[in-house]
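Archive record
______________

***
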Amino acid sequence: MTIDIGGSGLKAMLLDAKGKPVSERQRVVTPLVPTPDAVLASLEELRKLIGRFDRVSVGFPGVVKHGHTFGAFNLHPLWAGGFPLQAELEERWKKPVRVGNDADVAGYGAIKGDGVELVLTLGTGLGGALFTNGHLCPGLEIGHHIWRKKGMTYEDYIGRRGLDRFGNTKKIDFLPPKNVSIVSNESGLLGGVYLWRDQA
């Protein structure tokens, strides 16, 4: 099972070993106050909707190091102190779990694997992942870089805070250049299998 944790929705899907969907995408709303306990309870709802699975990949909207979460900007501050999300899910579900940054996971589901590729995810926040010949350059966190005004980040313009004023992918009404692709929101789930490449 692969899970995409977002600031407004939690999504899950079953994938086969090659990363192909074998179930419909399931979604539940992110809790209004998205503390770790509240999000974990909602993930339990998703688990029940999905049914049986062998292992879990999770895309998390913030910095992830060794399965611990840091800097979850569009969730609750309790996620920022090194919450052991990977170990917590393994304990609850008795399955192997791997957790990565959500934009990195989405990038794995979107890239072609040739040359330098930049993946931008536009949703509740802005995510970014950079790849060179299919290899991730980790830790980009582009959405939180200062832009234009002191104290303002890219997320203030194209994340949830800027949605009504400036827009996100739903408001893109122009054709991108030939070397730019717009991919489905499901990429955030399809890349989950890549967290297990060492066991392929």
Q: What stands out?
A: The chain has a mean pLDDT of 89. The two ends are 16 Å apart (CA to CA). Residues 36-50 form the longest helix (15 residues). Residues 2-105+192-199 form a domain with the Nucleotidyltransferase; domain 5 fold (CATH 3.30.420.40).
